[in-house]
Fold Ribosomal protein S18-alanine N-acetyltransferase.
Amino acid sequence: MTVIDELRLADVAACAELEKEMFAGDSPWPAAAFRAELKAPYNRYFAARDAPGQSPIGYAGISILGPDGDTECEIHTIAVALTRRGRGIGRELLDRMLAVAAQRDAPVFLEVRVDNDPAIELYESAGFVKAGMRRGYYQPSGADAFTMIRPAPSGRTPENPDD
């Protein structure tokens, strides 16, 4: 059974190693990037572990942006070790981040590679829809990304803030 808890500064080195494995062609985050993300007060990061205290086998992060009542969230990353994919770990991490957004009735934004069909299917199954395209978003590969949005639980989006 996978344990989902807070990502800690002690996890940074393990996450940086997972990044190198998973995102070698697209500027994997170094340990310094993870440290900065964890220290930002508007971010929440989660770890997936085989057991409490073990190294992460996956991680995910979301930013909480804007004032109460007009909050938006942005998923910064969600990643699961290559050897652990297809077991529902990504869904558990996504659900944890969506709960953060739901507590604030916030819409959620993300970018995903246009060729990452498993991730796109996961996001669509959680209520995300494609809202646009970012050409050459991922570097250095130059891969394109879809921008996706999931409305707030109330249906509020940036386009219809009064709903």
The mean pLDDT is 92. The helical segments are 12-22, 31-39, 89-103, 117-125.
